Amino acid sequence: MVERTKVVEVVPYNPEWKTEFEQIKTMIMNYIGDVILAVEHVGSTSIEGLSAKPIIDLDVVMDSYDVLPDIIERLEKAGFEYQGNLGIEGREAFKRTFDDGFMKYHLYVCPKDGKGYVEHIAFRDYLRANESARKDYETLKLKLAETYRYDIDNYCDKKTDFVKDILRLTLLKPYAYPRLETSRLLLKELTLEYTNEVFALFSDPVIAKFMDIEPCHTRQEAEEIITFHLEDTGTRWGIFLKEENRFIGTCGYHCLDMNTKAEIGFDLAKDYWGKGYMQEALAPVIDFGLSQMNLVFIEATVDVENMRSQRLLEKLSFIKAEELKDDLYYYSLQS
């Protein structure tokens, strides 16, 4: 049986967890480093700033199950007990039976394409990039730790819906997130790294009006815009001038519906209007949506006063619906 925590204890993040992981990783690499691909720090202790149970979770990544017998033999010789998958496909558990001087840790060996490993990495990376989700998860964990202090099973079960929601957001997209390139532009994923640039863009009342939002007054509001796009099931790129690596706008898809229909959105800093940049950016975005995302319909809504965007969509072969709703024109493009 896997070692169970008798008392649920969630403590503030400790930067020494990262150091502890690196030391355990070095030990594991000394045993099996030549037959594995990587040792990954997963679980809550791998997420900087997040309160957690003080237990290091490690996923040892193997290319395939062909090397598992060798891994088992080596780790058993080193003093680990092989426990099988403990009822969870896609991971093999090992329990230390000796005092190696490290804090408590869980050691799993996983194939590189195993469901458990893929989900661990997706969940970890999402919380690392999304402060609001990280805070929500921490609040939930602290509340559950107080309610189920002596009931680890319920503590784990009650986190399930939150974890599934995050995985739904991160794993729903059936395509790799690409960088797109044109003669003048580079399009790359819009992340919190570009909060200052997004703040400058959306603090412009004209840009905000056509996006149907209030102008940004704080960096936090800009973070919320980026987080919305990260959490949505669509895709959002930042648009950069290639030679200068200068941020000039964003574009992408949102409101993805069963991977067949999505709404396209775009915004461009006023200094770059009238130079053909957005048409140049949207051409590969539309191609990606139709060829890689397998969209059947691409839709757009445009403010009745936004004549530039209306002309742009028509140049890109979008068809405008005759009916005007709520001061918005509706456009569509079919594959």
UniProtKB/TrEMBL annotation:
Domain N-acetyltransferase: 185-335
Keywords from the UniProt entry: Transferase
Gene Ontology terms, MF aspect: acyltransferase activity, transferring groups other than amino-acyl groups
InterPro entries noted in UniProt: Acyl_CoA_acyltransferase, GNAT_dom, GrpB/CoaE, NT_sf
Pfam families: Acetyltransf_3, GrpB
Protein name: GNAT family N-acetyltransferase
Species whose genome carries this gene: Paenibacillus anaericanus
